[in-house]
Amino acid sequence: MKGRYRGLALVSTLALLFLQAVAVPFSAAVDDSHDQTVLGDLYRLPSEPENNADRNDIVYPVAKEPEAATAPSWFTSTLMARRLLALSTTGVASTIFSHSPPENAHAPTPVAGHSISLKEYISDCDEALPPTSGNGGDGNPTFLALHVATTFRNTAAGSNISVSIDWWDHLSDTEPLFPGFPLSAAGLPRVTLIGYIEPFSTPVPEDTEAALRSCYLKAHPDARVWLPGQGNSPHTSFWARLVVTQVYWIGGFGGFQQIGWMNVTEWKGIRREKSLPGIGDGRGWQDVRLPGEKGY
């Protein structure tokens, strides 16, 4: 019996030595500030072998950190985030089911306190509004909200809201982030806006209503069917804005883009062409391009 165990131990040792001999080493530079793996600029991906039997012979290159890889400043990143909002027409809205739902709620009792994420139309319309209703473009996106929608039933019951938007749907409009690296959605930016829903005061002033319709329908022509007061609309609706209180940004791959919480004062002070006095270096979101965006 002892000889049998010694034989098994010998086999295990030989197997381990074999694996160590054939294993392909992999190393990657690490950006300690974010605990993110840093992807290098010297990628040459191996071509597919003609013979499937040769797949085990592929040797993948070691990722090397570029000599002068620096992430953009936080202000530049905030400009990019505002540009992302301006170019986006949809976002994933997350809300919480209430523990005290209204009597006409149809949600199962066990979901109380749980979150739900649903894609919603958005539009960056604040700059299009008259001064009495808007702030010149402060980064608070506009909703044409349906009373029946789960997102807005939850906010009406007291839930806060977060809206996540990204550049991933524009992958075909981007260029590779690094020489030799393929198009990658994972390297493109995304941002989450955290805050609360604030309905526009009713009745909405005529000039504000006209501005909202003009701006919103440019992004969502189909939404004319459920505009507020529309006679044949399947659902009733109202105009609302997301008042942003916090912003979380993932610019792309860590080490090459910023990842973390943004300065909300800067977020609200940025404008399309020129930011408000004292905000960053004065540039507007039109002065930057998104990571991967053609021409960036």
UniProtKB/TrEMBL annotation:
Signal peptide start-end: 1-23
SUPFAM superfamilies: FMN-binding split barrel
Keywords: Signal
Top-level taxon: Eukaryota
Pfam hit, one: CREG_beta-barrel
Residue ranges of domain CREG-like beta-barrel in the record: 80-266
Name of this chain's protein: Pyridoxamine 5'-phosphate oxidase-domain-containing protein
Organism: Aspergillus coremiiformis
